[in-house]
Design goal:
Layout lengths: L1 H66 L4 H29 L3 H21 L14 H5 L1
Helix pairs in contact: 1-2, 1-3
Length: 144
């Protein structure tokens, strides 16, 4: 009976340690994701600003080109093209950053799977099984 109580005590402590560790790690991942999301939104806003500048200068160039036939419109069109290219570069960078973000549910599942081996080692006193969900025989219970 004493070994069962000791086993249950170890199980309870291990569960509390696991939950505490997992919640702390999950909170850290959420903070990191929030920072990346803020950076990505700021980059998207910058890309939008460049796109508005390109549209404004492109419109100005078109008006100049239609209103009078002088070389000034070509300069305005060139600047609009530069802003357009900058908007594409920044927008692509923001899109790539957003694609790298991990959903909170996936983060939790990944951490849960990572902690499973730790839990089995801590409670059962054995190395985690490779590829199997549960060991075939539980050596701690067999000793009782």
């Amino acid at each position: 009976m004493g070994k069962w109580l000791e086993l249950l005590g170890r199980l309870g402590r291990a569960l509390l340690d696991l939950l505490s560790s997992e919640l702390g790690s999950f909170a850290d991942d959420l903070r990191s994701t929030r920072r990346e999301l803020i950076k990505s939104v700021l980059l998207l806003a910058l890309a939008g600003g460049f796109a508005l500048l390109a549209l404004g200068l492109g419109t100005l160039a078109a008006v100049w080109a239609l209103g009078q036939v002088i070389p000034a419109w070509a300069a305005a069109l060139g600047v609009a093209a530069i802003y357009g290219i900058a908007a594409l570069i920044v927008g692509t960078g923001a899109r790539n950053r957003l694609r790298r973000l991990e959903a909170p549910v996936d983060t939790f599942k990944r951490h849960w799977d990572d902690q499973r081996g730790w839990f089995q080692d801590r409670v059962l006193g054995e190395a985690p099984p490779s590829g199997e969900d549960l060991p075939e025989a539980d050596p701690v219970i067999e000793d009782v």
